[in-house]
Structures are given as C-alpha cells and as structure tokens.
Amino acid sequence: MPSLWIWPFELMEKIGEGGMGVVYKARYVKDDRLFAVKLIPTEITNPTLLARFEREISVLKTLRHPNIVRAFGGVCEDKQRFYAMELVDGGTLWDKIQNAGYLEWQKVTDYGQQMCAALAYAHSKKIVHRDVKPNNFLITKAGQVKLSDFGLVSVMSEARLTADGRTMGTVQYMSPEQIRGKPPLTHASDLYSLGCVFYEMLTGNPPFEYDNPATTMHAHLGEQVKPISSVNKDVPRELDRLVMQLLEKKIDDRPESALEVAERLSRIRLSPQLIDTTASSTSAVKMTPDAADLIEPEQLSTVYAVFEKTLKVFWVALCASFLLMAAVWTVSLFQSDPGTELWIETFQTHSDQRVREAAAFSLMKLSENDRDLQDLLMEAAEDTSNPVGVRTAALNALASQQEAIGRFHSRLNRLAKSDKEEAVRVAAAAGLQPLR
Asked: How many Cα atoms occupy the beta-carbon half-sphere of 182 within 13 Å?
C-alpha cells in the first residue's frame, strides 16, 4: 500500500476514526520523529463540522498539561484541514477495559486521579469537554493517562457551535442536562460523564446501555443506577459511594469539582480499610466505633481525620475539634496540620509505588506556596533510585505551580534533555511549557 502524504508528514497507518476526523500515525520527514496527525477528509464540507475542527485546534493549542494530549499546531487552509499531536503509544482506556473485562479498583483510583487532573485543568480554563468517555482517554506504556479529542468542547460563557436544544456526545456517557440540550453546560456535566467512565472501569459496562439510544438517554434522565457493589464485591464502599454521587441526576448533588473527586480518590487509595459506607450516595458515612458519634456524616469526604487515624498520633478530642473546622477548610489549614507529615512519609517510604504516586498528587495541593515541599518533590523527581512512576508523579505535581516551574527551570530543563527515562523527559518538558 503506497504511503499517503500531507506535507511535511508521511501518514503511515490509521490508528483512530470518529465523527470529527481520522487519526494517523505519521512520520515528520524533517527529523523522522513520530506524531499522530488528525485530519478531516476532504469530502466533508459541512460548515459546522469544519468550524468545530478549527475550534478543537485553537483550544488544544492553549492547553499545556501532563494529562492532556499535546497539540503542535495545524493547517486550516484549502480543502485539507489537519493538525499534529503527540503520539500516545499505549492504546485507550476502552482497550484496557475490553482486554481485562474490568479494572482493579486500585488501578481505577490511579487512573482516576490523572483523569481528574486533566479535567480540573480544563475546567480552570472554563472549558467543558462534553465527550468524556473511555475512548478519549489515551494511556502511555508508562501508565500516564492523557485526555484527548476536544472536538465537542464548549467554552463557558462563549457562543456555541451547536444550536440550542441539539444533543451532541456519546449517549452512554451523557449527563441528564446534556441530553435535555439546555445550555450552557458546566463542568458538572463532565463530572457525570466521568462517573459513567468510572462505573465502566469497575464493572465492565457503562451504567446504562440499551439497544435503543433513546432508551439509554431516558435511563440517564430518570432510572436509578445499579450499585457497583452488586456487580463487583471487591470495590471499597466509599469508592462505590463516590461514583454514585457523580451519577446523581441533579447537578447540586454531585461533587463540586474534579479536584474534590481526585482528593477523595487519593484517600480511598491510601486507606480503603478505614472507610465504611453504604453503596448509596445518600447514606450516612460511618467510622470506627470510638469516633462514630463525634463526626457528622457529610463531613468525612473533606477531612483528613482518616489519615490521622492511621498514624494514631491524635487523640479523639483533637480529631473532633479539627472536624468542626472542615467547613472552612483551606490550603493553609492543611499546611499547618501535622497530617502533612503522613503524606511526606507515604510519598518517600511506602512500599507500593502506586500509593506513592497518589501521595504525590496530594502533595501537589499542599506544596502551593510551600518551598520546602516543592524542594522535596523536585529532589524526588531527580532521584534515579525512585521508580519512574514516582518521579513522573512528582514532576506532574510541580507542573501545576508556576512559581515552582520558574524556580526549577534549569533542573527541569536538564531532566527534559538528558534523563535516561523517556517518561521523565516527557513529564519535565510538559512542566516547562508554561514558560515557553
């Protein structure tokens, strides 16, 4: 089969196809590097589709995050429209689910935190993805998750490319408000879709899937979701509860942000045995008996007491007084709390690499304006005795902080250019992007 060319790329093989275009593995002829090239076939002339493709290019060019596919620019001239992006070599999340049937809950929390990091960053830019589904999460061979396909993206408060009342997306993962077609959509719609993806990761199937798309959409609007625990008994009840909350029909009943979801996943990953909840998102939260009557049910999801319990360094009275302050929780409160030491110890010494990676995500928030914690993360990223996943997790944590990137510019640049591990080089280079 002869090669196809879109100068300066040689299109080698088709690796994906959807309503918004075709994706090829491609060789950049000037230096033989490999990229993914997404193009719209020349026979597509619909003005709305073409405008949406151009919007995708313009949006992706503004996004610089380790968990979002990097775009390198494109061409929207003449009859052929295309753009180049990084080539992700490990397949899609959908591939992982199909091959395994369903994923272990530990892997779901690991992937989930990265997925939340991508969405939190997009939402901070007032971008709603609108098509969150397993096929749009790519996974590198090193286990790094990257959100892709921003073809249906909408920018909150800006004009839409679809008419009011028109539903766009994939029915198995649509939020009720997306199905109703009542703009403007907010980040809460992406969180509902994320809940559908989590559900499929843990059970092997999306929460609602019927032969008729209309029946599937009707189920999203009014049908109750079958608890995960009734399908997969190994899933911690708090994880079941979190997914059920993401799948609430009413926006106000869902978690407030992707960052909140990530933090809860991190706690579940570290201490599943200390969390005792029912499968229903409306049920009360229980702790171990000696503390149960001191804690309000709705407070547990935003409190560090779980980890203080693990260390057994706080007496019950102090825990109770700390929990009363949870409603006004701030970053500075966390930074002054001795529980921070648990995150540091876990990140540095835990025997499970995935737990250390989860701890790095929590240190990302705690290290804002804390140079000592930033130094700790940078040193961990440079320490070649650490597993690659731990080093990249440390770099991803630093990448969200403009001050840290500026302070460590030369050290990040050195890692990006000369580290022997490709995943470390990529993560360091991604961290430097805001400075370029």
From this structure: 4
